[in-house]
Amino acid sequence: MGNLKRRIAILISLLFASLGFGVITKYLDSVPYFSDVFTRLGIWVFIGTLIAAYSKTPIRAGIHTMIFFLGMLSGYYVYSAMLFGVFSTSYILYWGVIALASPFLAAIVWFAKNNSRSAFILPAFPMGLMLSLSVGVGIFYVYLNYITELIMYCVLCIIFYKEPKQMMLIILFSVLLTFIIKQSPLSWYTAF
Fold first, then answer.
1. Using CA atoms, how far apart are residues 133 and 130, in angstroms rounded to an integer?
2. Which CA distances in Å does 94 have to 41, 54, 121, 191?
3. Backbone angles phi and psi of 66, in degrees to 5
């Protein structure tokens, strides 16, 4: 029973922390540099990946990331509505879909970090998404859009690193996935 109380306390703490994080994020919308970082998808992929990768089980990874994202969204949009009278339905639907998909994505990340067999392919998914957010890719060109997200990609390389061969394979797969995302209809979804 004590363990259950502890788990509930952790989840409630995570919810309140994420509500506060949402308010802080909305506040940072008016601060140069931070407004660009916190309004893009990359930072949220990065934070969600960190939460999921370092959770104890895949179920906890899913629960923790969903609570974090729902709390953060609630704090962000309630603060926006109260302070500025602004409530964008289209944006909350966009981010809400991501929050509701986060348990599934978190389980993928957990297995990518904590399962030696999965470590040769699954890390390519969050890393490929992050790389697609940081670079522009065409058939005959590659250019850097956002250095912050490229730095986050490099940190993800460190998080998912098991051995040199595995990392080279993951980098190759993530580059391939980046090209697929950029050349497919998925690229519109990462434009926010």
1. 5
2. 11, 26, 27, 11
3. -65, -45
Query: Taking the complete model, does pTM exceed 0.90, yes or no?
Result: no
Entry field: residues in the chain: 192
Nearest partner of 160 among 147, 148, 173, judged by Cα: 173
For residue 117, the 8-state DSSP code is T
Task: Tell me the one-letter amino acid at 84.
Answer: F
Q: Are 120 and 164 in contact (CB under 8 A)?
A: no
Q: Residue 88 is inside which H or E element, if any?
A: none
Encode pLDDT of 110-145 as tens digits: 999 998 888 889 999 999 999 999 998 777 888 898
Separation CA 51–CA 39 (nearest Å): 19
pLDDT tens, position by position, 85-107: 777 788 888 888 889 999 999 99
Residue 146: CB atoms within 10 A of its CB come to: 17
Q: Give the torsion through C-alpha atoms of 108, 110, 113, 114, to 10 deg.
A: -120
Task: State how far the Cα of 125 lies from the Cα of 141, in Å rounded to an integer.
Answer: 22
User: What is the distance between the alpha carbons of residues 96 and 182, in angstroms, rounded to a whole number?
Assistant: 23
